[in-house]
Amino acid sequence: MLNTFTEFTTKAILRTGDENLLRSYQKTTDKFYTFIRTKTISATVNIDSVPLTIEPHSILVLTDLQAIELVNGRDLIIYQFNQEFYCIKDHDKEVSCSGLLFFGNIHMPIIHLSKEQERKLDTLNEVFLDEFETKDNIQAEMLRMLLARFIIICTRLLKANEGFITTKKDSRVELLREFNMLVEAHFKTNHNVAFYADKLFKSPKTLSNTFAKLNTSPLQIIHKRIVLEAKRLLTYSEKPAKEIAYDIGFTDASHLSRLFKKQTELTPSQFKKMLQS
């Protein structure tokens, strides 16, 4: 059964379901962070065209940069969310979208579960499903809290059992991962591709050509992160749009306004008013 929560104002999406969720995901261009949990049966997936078997009683964690293809598997529990759903809110660095599970390691995280850990996650999943049925003005916050709890649990388990697996590396994906980490660290002060290219000992042209093969560009990634931060501050702070622009490194607030409108079709002020309506 597929459950989907969408938030019109922020374009946030959270989805849960079984293996059919992965089959539908293969037909879209949407980008989601993904958790794949097996129960008593193993599953086989291709991650960036590399085959991988997920053993029973395990969780595989994937970023929104990785391409997923389900080969076989059943009785799976899948969680998927986009940046606007979870990354828009401030979290501790260890459990953020650039934390240990997602960009904090060079290996692909896989978590092996004991019977007791499975029982606890089954209970949490039931709460998730109940909350999808509760349509009120705090549903989004409740679902974010539940996802944060799930991510915290997975982070603790990963640290405890050191559940890293190594797959064949794709140099393009590794470069993209490093670039994203640098953007996360410096996007408030550096908006130019040349800055990040220099940090990676690459030319801007090399980055652009490499990322084009992954259907993105360095500048798109920088701009997306800037707009995501602007959305977060507009949603969760009382700061005016002009102050937010300065916080994100713009000396002229109109520059952020133009970028924000290009990405969202709204100015920051219009976005703020829509949140309050």
Short description:
With 277 residues, the chain is an alpha+beta fold. The protein is built from eleven helices and ten strands.
Structural features, described:
With 277 residues, this protein is of the alpha+beta class. It has eleven helices and ten strands. It has helices spanning 19-25, 83-86, 115-132, 139-161, 171-186, 193-199, 204-212, 218-236, 241-247, 253-264, 268-276; strands at residues 3-7, 12-17, 33-37, 43-47, 50-54, 58-62, 68-72, 77-81, 108-112, 164-165. A seven-stranded antiparallel beta sheet has the order 1-2-8-3-6-9-10, sandwiched between helices. Helix 3 (115-132) packs antiparallel against helix 4. The longest helix has 23 residues, at 139-161.
Key traits:
single chain, 277 residues, alpha+beta, Jelly Rolls, Arc Repressor Mutant, subunit A, 3-stranded antiparallel beta sheet, 11 helices, 17% strand, globular
